Amino acid sequence: MQSSRVLSFVISEDTLRIRPKWFIPDYLKLQYAGLLGFVSVGAGYNFTPRYDGTLYFGVLSETFGGSSVNVQTLSYKSSWGLFRPGLLGPITPKAGASLNWGYTNNTFRRLPEHYPEKYYFQNRLHIAPFYGAEWKREFAAESSISAIGLYAEMSTLDAYLLEFFRTKYVTIDKIWNLALGITIYFN
Fold this sequence. Notes:
Layout: E1 7-11, E2 14-18, E3 27-33, E4 39-46, E5 51-60, E6 71-81, E7 91-103, E8 125-138, E9 145-155, H1 158-166, E10 177-186
């Protein structure tokens, strides 16, 4: 589906596409859990029919999640559709990874000197692979909202995977986290 925000011109059998206000995101997301915080909001772009990228900001605090520790997370999530769009109707299986940067009073990029070497994994920056699916409901072209999607994802962190492979105490069923979300797509 071609966005109404794209203008196409044909010049000597070449197509030139101009998208006014390119900085306006293609969609907004609201996500519950999923290693980005208790709640997170994101804005993203559909770069190709099967690849999109989303920038998220997540929070975990006493107000959002009942935590005694305040955590803010900034994340860039890359997501790939596993099949061509429409193959499974309104459901699109997806997989990808996000790069999460967490900030709180007890996160660190380098271990403090009083920790033994390789005792702890740094906890400020993580790679978080995920898989899941989105159900999408399309709307009429006249609306400014082109579709709404509901999605679920299972994700883990690089540190969890490391401990799964390194120790016998962390099992595969203990490293996954469920995220639920809604996506609002724009024309």
